[in-house]
Design brief:
Elements (H helix, E strand, L loop, with lengths): L1 H18 L29 H5 L5 H4 L2 E6 L2 E6 L2 H10 L12 H6 L11 H16 L5 H19 L5 E2 L1 H18 L8 H17 L2 H8 L12 H23 L8 H12 L8 H32 L1 H15 L14 H14 L4 E6 L3 E6 H5 L42 H18 E4 L24 E5 L6
Parallel strand pairs: 2-5
Antiparallel strand pairs: 1-2, 3-7, 4-5, 6-7
The structure holds protoporphyrin IX containing FE.
Length: 482
């Protein structure tokens, strides 16, 4: 009996030795990975940020580089501004790839730009998007006019609720979605439009699923991917979205005048005509996914930043009032704000940047280094890194103001990332944030409702971070002529 027991335990011990995961020599430190599971059981899957911020995977414990295993695959986390800059800027060639075998790659069918690996396909499409955005007036007045036009609908919508309270979630989602729709489809939608509502709902559902607990388990144990688990509905939703994009493309095909593009889709169709069958990576299937990528990347991030902005502004009324004073002075006698006005509004600009710092919508970015090692840059740590900020752990616009009250941007402010994979919508997003916030603050006074209890700033973990749902009280301001 004893002999059999010893034999069983010896076998178990040898199997364990065979399948155990060992960190290679000189590999960044981290918690001991378990066979098969790696560090899956070490991480709070509902909200890993808690582990990283002040928890047991914090900077204080493992320093600025550490590693975790998803199954038998290592992922290296870069945790400070200096190491991220070194990787993404100084060694950009090595650190600009994307993993191609995550679940999410199956969803996107390895098309589009956000998840594309570093290479000719990504380069051509990134260049094309930047050029198209520029041609449609990014950085010029025409884009500004389009955004202001969209903001006028937002103002009318909020005005209907003046004197009452609103849940700003849908309001900001609609406006961000409409701005990017203008660029992509040449038109924006009525806020109650069925197409828009379905589009946003499908994107929201996919975000929830790809950030849910099943996905992490499937990354760890890829065999699970073939089972009919709840995450499979994400594929049905993605198919519906692709069909919606296909219908938009076919409508464009039937109404376009070649060489006279009205929007991003027309530009891409012109590009296809010009390239004919030159063997390039441009194709209609790419366009379907590319539209989805840009819509997704441009909507959630911008609207969650706005939600964060107003959460902090209504709970810091003194900061709101100081912005309004500056805005009133600079816009005295003008009908509307212009993006150029930012140069005369150092305090408001500082508040917008501080909002982006605390909102930190894109917390982790995955990159692929040779030999299959995934590199994850942890933007959360950098945007609160001691030594980089005057007040790393509080909401304080002074983080972006010098002694003379002039606007100053610390180098570690990288909410749009840095290096070749930097956000390609940065210019558009910055213009949107400025024009929307300035216009709304000029028109309305926003307040935390008396019966709403204590504000909770802890973000909800998701593909992008978002504040917990809240309501805000709205009142028209008297100073502005209607
Ligand atoms: C406040 C708003 C925004 C924030 C904070 C933001 C942030 C980011 C970040 C951090 C990345 C890098 C992600 C990564 O490497 O995984 C990124 C990439 C990207 N963003 Fe944005 N973004 C915003 C708005 C937009 C808008 C409006 C657009 C649409 C034009 C857009 C399009 C993209 C695209 C296409 C990429 C992928 C670039 C590539 O991989 O080459 N973003 N964004």
């Amino acid at each position: 009996m004893l002999g059999s027991l010893i034999l069983v335990w010896t076998c178990i011990f040898f199997v364990f030795l065979l399948i155990r995961i060992q960190r290679p020599r000189n590999f960044p430190p981290g918690p001991l990975p378990l066979p098969l599971f790696g560090n899956l059981l070490h991480v709070n899957m509902a909200n890993p940020l808690k582990d990283f911020e002040r928890g047991w995977l914090s900077f204080e414990r493992y320093g600025n580089i550490f590693s975790l295993y998803t199954g038998s695959r290592p992922a290296v986390f870069l945790n400070s501004f200096e190491v991220i800059k070194e990787a993404l800027v100084m060694k950009a060639q090595d650190f600009s790839g994307r993993p191609q075998d995550f679940m999410i790659n199956h969803l996107s069918e390895n098309k589009g730009v956000v998840l594309a690996d570093y290479g000719p396909h990504w380069k051509d499409h990134q260049r094309f998007a930047l050029m198209t955005l520029r041609n449609f007036g990014l950085g010029k007045q025409s884009m500004e006019e389009r955004i202001l036009e969209e903001i006028s609908h937002l103002v009318a919508d909020l005005d209907k609720n003046a004197g009452g309270t609103v849940n700003p979630q849908n309001v900001f989602h609609n406006v961000a979605s409409n701005v990017i729709s203008l660029v992509l489809f040449g038109s924006c939608f009525d806020y109650n439009d069925e197409f828009l509502q379905q589009y946003i709902q499908l994107i929201t559902e996919i975000s929830k699923i790809i950030n849910g607990p099943w996905i992490m388990k499937c990354e760890t144990l890829p065999l699970l991917r073939i089972l009919p688990l709840p995450f499979k509905t994400a594929f049905d939703y993605a198919k519906k979205l692709k069909n919606m994009n296909l219908s938009l493309i076919s409508e464009h095909k039937s109404t376009r005048l070649p060489g006279e593009p009205r929007d991003f889709i027309d530009c891409y169709l012109d590009e296809l005509d010009n390239r004919k069958n030159d063997g390039s990576t441009f194709s209609e299937e790419q366009l379907v996914m590319y539209i989805l990528d840009l819509h997704f990347a441009g909507t959630d991030t911008t609207s969650n930043t706005l939600l964060t902005a107003f959460l902090y502004l209504i709970t810091h009324p003194e900061i709101q009032t100081k912005c309004q004073k500056e805005i009133d002075e600079v816009l005295e006698g003008k009908d509307h704000a212009s993006y150029e006005d930012r140069h005369n509004m150092p305090y408001t600009l500082a508040v917008i940047h501080e909002v982006q710092r605390v909102a930190n919508t894109n917390k982790f970015e995955p990159f692929l280094l040779g030999q299959g090692t995934v590199i994850i840059t942890n933007l959360t740590t950098i945007l609160k890194e001691e030594g980089q900020w005057k007040f790393p752990h509080e909401f304080n616009p002074d983080n972006f103001l010098n002694e003379q009250g002039q606007f100053e941007k610390p180098e570690a402010f990288i909410p749009f990332s840095t290096g070749p994979r930097v956000c390609l919508g940065e210019g558009l997003a910055r213009m949107e944030l400025f024009l929307i916030m300035v216009t709304l603050l000029r028109r309305f006074q926003f307040a935390w409702p008396d019966d709403a209890g204590e504000p909770d700033y802890t973000p909800v973990y998701g593909v992008t971070l978002t504040p917990k749902p809240y309501r805000m009280h709205i009142r028209r301001r008297e100073r502005v002529k209607q």
